[in-house]
Amino acid sequence: MNHDFLWGGATASYQCEGAWKEDDKVKSMWDHYLHEENLENGDIASDHYHRYEEDIRMMAEGGQNSYRFSLSWPRIIKNKEGDVNEKGIEFYHKILDTCKKYGIEPFVTIYHWDLPQYWEETGGWLNEEVCYAYQHYAKVCFDNFKDKITHWVTFNEPKWFICSGYLIGNYPPAHQNPQETIKAAFHVMYANALGVKAFREGNYPGNIGIVHSFTPVNGIDDTVETKIAMRYADNYCNNWILDTAAKGEIPIDLLTALSKIYDISFIKPKHLKTIKENTVDFLGLNYYSRTLVKPYTEGETVLIVNHKGKESKGESKVILKGWFEQVLHDPNMTYTEWDTEIYPKGLQEGLIEVYQRYHLPIYITENGVGVQEDVSVDQVQDDYRIAFMNDHINAIMNAMDEGVDVKGYYAWSSFDLYSWKNGCKKRYGLVAVDFEDNLKRKPKKSYYWYKEMIQNNGKTI
Ligand code: BG6
User: Fold this and answer.
1) Is residue 449 in contact with ligand 1, taking CB distance under 6 Å?
2) Which of 366, 373, 426 to mutate to test the pocket of ligand 1 (most atoms within 8 A of CB)?
3) CA distance 146 to 205
4) Over 90: is that where the pLDDT of 2 sits?
5) Domains and CATH numbers, the chain
6) Catalytic residue among 36, 366, 402, 452
């Protein structure tokens, strides 16, 4: 194991900062949506905005050498004209200086879903202008933080926020429209290329990558029908992000399939040229589970949208008519409380496949398990989290033994925070945050386990 390996935890601005309108921050689309719908929101969240010093110190005391977090666009850019909020810039300088003080390497995502509401009101990701606004925002970040950040991420999980926002409809702007999904997805990948372009043109130090919600695709059997379904699923789940960002090419069979049903005339040669010329330096993979598929049979493909935990589950019909069906529950497998299959082997297999395809360095930028926990106790005994992380880290080590260039691992999440649409009851943290008792921080058992594992240089149980 390489001693430069980055070990840390991850968070996202909306999910942990709170201070939703402090220091001239404007509204994000999530502030707007959750307030309008009267849903649990991240107005306060873990109050990282005021407690970042304690949080970062605890990372260092937990043996971690890196912290993955995101910058908030509505904290940094005040309006459509692109004016900069100096107080937002100052806040992230404080975070970065604190990281330095504690020997923590920052790994920074430019966009983790909190689009300014003033852009959402112009059509959000359906509006090509937003791509250029993103490029401006990214450039402001590069210019201001170039001396303190060398690991940059353009976007967190395009598939997840676009499909949830425009296809399934459980995230803002809560549309269910396949045609819009395709357009918004394309715009995000174009904006990714524009961000990379700005980074290259400015000659900033360091590297830039994209983070993908990676679900390797497995089939239920070896038939030709299943293999065709798997290819469709892989295009839907992975390839439109990874091929486009890493090779500068949108999978041709995906474009062909889409063009038979939808209008893709908004894709112009100038966009494709920018995408081709501006590929990423590394891939970040968030791994929670795989996608198990079978051939399409009848009706429409249905994905379960599991956003409320045990109490209720939403269901949504989606576009992929005739493409594939997802096997949602296999009685032989183990699932989390939120019905996510626990499948570490998928990470090992998936890493090998992705590395063979793209030959780029890989970071595991998120991995973890969401559970309802009683945090009033002195120490949460989260042996299930230890087992989960242990098995997944072990899968990474096996892939590395087979030659895959993995450069870092980030637990999701560094500490308990707001989970999109699940509120604060779905906890992922290594450190408990007591939302009922003054947001008190208490390390869980997994925090100490992680520390020891890092000290032993990745040695799992
Ligand atoms: C990833 C996101 O999709 O999964 C995180 O990057 C998110 O922001 C995490 O919180 C877990 O998802 P959830 O919905 O359980 O909070």
Assistant:
1) no
2) 366
3) 7
4) no
5) 6-455 (3.20.20.80)
6) 366
